[in-house]
Design brief:
The chain is an alpha+beta fold and 268 residues long. The protein contains five helices and 14 strands. The strands form three sheets. The chain has an eight-stranded mixed β-sheet with strand order 1-2-11-8-13-5-4-3. The chain has a four-stranded antiparallel β-sheet with strand order 6-12-9-10, with no helix packed on it. A hairpin with an 8-residue loop joins strand 3 and strand 4.
């Protein structure tokens, strides 16, 4: 499956050495952009934070497949206040400035962090989805900064449908069951991208620790399992909002399940 999907990747998608005007233009056009080396000084600290998180999971910890004790795809989120390495990354790293620059926003506001780890031989895929329907947020200036602390080959990298941030919303779905959320019937079901990759223009990058990918909350993305027998794929994702982000109630369950007491239309 990984090889079949990878053959449809855009040949030599652009990468950038910083949040340049060209990087921002690529993000606005494609819905995702790769920036090389900007977070190199934070690899060890974030890796330590991930280890601390895995040793002491939070209330939102999830492991797939359920009941597995090895070869797991695990994720956890909203732990930044109790994991000092995460809090330092949010407050002190270049992540905030990178997000602000590519969103073309006057400011970037931290939303939450999300750790995703695929252990060696973890077969569970990252189902195709986009992030924003899970959140009570509307607007064009919301992104994820995907920061791996391990080398990520093309056959394990996150893939994106180029330009899909302009397609509107699809129904959010549970990773465990891949069923749409209850109450999201007003939205169309996610297309089966993995079954017909030739119908889409896919982006994906081979990454080294210190590289990152920034992508819109509306960009469709997914990944296959981790075929490595010896190396995990450890990623810290941080999510950032820009000037036009507004609180938007949903008819379905939201994740993370926090609203901060905001009302419809309030700025985040």
């Amino acid at each position: 499956m990984a090889r079949r999907v990878a053959q449809y990747l855009v040949s030599s998608p652009p990468c950038f050495e910083g949040a340049t005007a060209a990087a921002a233009a690529a993000y606005q056009r494609d819905g995702a952009v790769c920036i090389r080396g900007a977070l190199r000084g934070w690899v060890d600290a974030v890796a330590s934070g991930i280890a601390r998180n895995l040793a002491s999971p939070g209330p939102h910890f999830e492991s797939l497949p359920l009941g597995a004790t090895s070869a797991r795809f695990v994720n956890d989120y909203c732990n930044w206040r109790r994991i000092p390495e995460y809090e330092s990354f949010v407050r002190e790293s270049p992540a905030k400035a990178l997000a602000r620059a590519v969103m073309a926003s006057e400011r970037s506001i931290f939303y939450h962090e999300h750790v995703l780890v695929k252990e060696p031989l973890a077969a569970s895929p990252t189902p195709w989805h986009h992030d924003q329907p899970y959140y009570p947020i509307d607007g064009d200036q919301l992104l994820s900064l995907w920061f791996p602390v391990d080398p990520v080959p093309l056959d394990a990298t996150l893939l994106f449908v180029r330009g899909s941030h302009r397609h509107g919303y699809y129904a959010p779905r549970k990773f465990e069951t891949q069923r749409n959320y209850d109450g999201s019937d007003e939205l169309p079901t996610m297309p089966a991208i993995a079954d017909a990759p030739h119908e889409h223009e896919l982006l994906g990058w081979q990454l080294q620790p210190g590289d990152c990918v920034l992508f819109s909350g509306k960009t469709l993305h997914g990944a296959v399992g981790n075929a490595s027998e010896s190396r995990s794929r450890r990623v810290l994702t941080t999510r950032w909002m820009g000037d036009d982000a507004r609180f938007a109630p949903r008819r379905w369950e939201i994740s993370p399940p926090y609203t901060g007491g905001l009302q419809a239309g309030d700025p985040k």
